[in-house]
Amino acid sequence: MVSESLDGLAARLAGASGFIFDMDGTLVLGDSASSGYRPLPGAEVLLEELTARGIPFRIFTNGSAIAPAQYAYNLRVAGLKVPDSAVMTPTTAAAYWFSERGIRKVRALGRSESFVPLRAAGIEVVENAAPSCAVEAVYVAYHRAFTFDDLEAVLADLEDGAQLTTASNVPFFASEGGRKIGTSFAINAAITAMTGIEPVILGKPSLAALHCARSLMGLPTDATHKLIVVGDDPGLEMRMARAASAASIGVTTGLSDATDFGAHADEQADFVVRSLDELCVRLGERIDAV
After folding, report:
1. Distance CA 128, CA 149 (A)
2. Which of 95, 153, 264, 280 has the fewest CB atoms lying closer than 10 Å?
3. From the record, what ranges are coiled-coil (predicted)?
4. What is the pLDDT of residues 55-99, one digit of tens each?
């Protein structure tokens, strides 16, 4: 069962240091290419209210098809007033993770335009099956054009000691027409089947991803437990929040219904709302109280 009633939500909001929002199924729904978004109820009002109140937030999509700035542009086209800096992807978190470990050369599987955060961090990117040597890590992102040449290049890198990482390892994500396939999951499965190596997940639900979001909001480490994570996937947002002892809010506008958010202890939501409209009401109670 969900651990707290909605009566306590306003109080939790009152102490929030910042918010991390999922995108698809939480703020918007979009097609399989993550374009043509439709805002979900309450999304526009909620983000505008947080901005007006100076409460920091990050929109964290687990999609890795395009650059964060392009996702932000698409959200603005849909009517959400968000700056480029408000959006992050698993590749944003990957750049943070690689940089912390001194990894400077990465084979990245996916679209060239999605690797902007890696290059901005000074990381040399070897794209897909391009020939190279001394690759320190392999990064599997959204890649519908995956080929056997790509697979062979990855296997050679792993044999030479490169570390296997991935943007995401979930089979599906929410869209307007129903669930869509997460391509990195299928690619990871092929690589693991052939090598026995499990990828390090750098997007949600990893703690590294949450701490990257916190850092980008300018919040100190001791503010982590005051973060509020909002999303539609218990296995991603709720799991990430619980691992960090942050608060979690599940929404039923995407992949999951209310019962899903209480099915497993490590994926349990602190609160569940039908839509962000309901969260707007509770946020109003929080504002009236301060």
Report:
1. 8
2. 264
3. none
4. 999 999 999 999 999 999 999 999 999 999 999 999 999 999 999
What domains are defined for the chain? 6-89+205-289 (3.40.50.1000), 91-201 (3.40.50.1000)
Written in H, E and C, the secondary structure of the chain is CCCCCHHHHHHHHHCCCEEEECCECCCEECCCCCCCCEECCCHHHHHHHHHHHCCCEEEECCCCCCCHHHHHHHHHHCCCCCCHHHEECHHHHHHHHHHHCCCCEEEEECCHHHHHHHHHCCCEEEECCCCCCCCCEEEECCCCCCCHHHHHHHHHHHHCCCEEEECCCCCEECCCCCCEECHHHHHHHHHHHHHCCCCEECCCCCHHHHHHHHHHCCCCHHHHHHEEEEECCHHHHHHHHHHHCCEEEEECCCCCCHHHHHCCHHHCCCEEECCHHHHHHHHHHHHHHC
d(CA 28, CA 25): 6
CA dihedral over 60, 63, 68, 72, signed as positive or negative: negative
What pLDDT digit, counting tens, does each position of 114-153 carry? Answer: 999 999 999 999 999 999 999 999 999 999 999 999 999 9
Contact 69, 116 (CB under 8 A): yes
CA 212 to chain centre: 11
